[in-house]
Amino acid sequence: MTARRPRSSRLWEERGSATAETAIVLPVVVTMVLVVLLAGGAIGAQVRLESAARGAARELARGEDESAAAAVAERLGGSGTTITVRVQGEWVRVEAHRSLRLASPAVGSATVGLLADAEARREPQLLDARAGPTGGAP
């Protein structure tokens, strides 16, 4: 009889390769998950800031004062949300600003400036009141 080579010799030579591949791939996967989570948090904050700008513009379009609009923006956008208001004719434009700090032990920390804007047309009765009464025959 001839001596046969054991079938498992090739498997024996590749032993541990799965562990080595996992050791190389696992940090990449963990980093990608952290980046996706941080990006998701930033996107969520941006959506809240857009809502804050729309809410503040809506308040101003209804005739509320700027402090009420700022309170709505801070409630919807989170603490640290500030607004800038510009009135252009019958339109009111609100820009909402907020700084967002993204922190992770593996990635580090970064501060991102977020900006959102919204426009709303002022209510017709507010425009008529500003223009004053019109003269005419009773």
What can be said about this structure in brief?
The protein is an alpha+beta fold.
Low-confidence stretches: 132-138
Structure class: alpha+beta
Proportion of strand residues: 25-35%
Helix content: 40-55%
The overall pLDDT average reads 84
Q: N-to-C SSE series?
A: HHHEEEH
Shape: rod-shaped
Determine the N-to-C terminus distance.
Answer: 126 Å
What is the number of helices?
4
> Largest sheet at a glance?
3 strands, antiparallel
User: What's the number of extended β-strand segments?
Assistant: 3
- Radius of gyration over all CA atoms, rounded: 30 Å
Strand order in the sheet with the most strands? 1-2-3
Oligomer state of the chains in this structure: single chain
| Count of the domains | 1
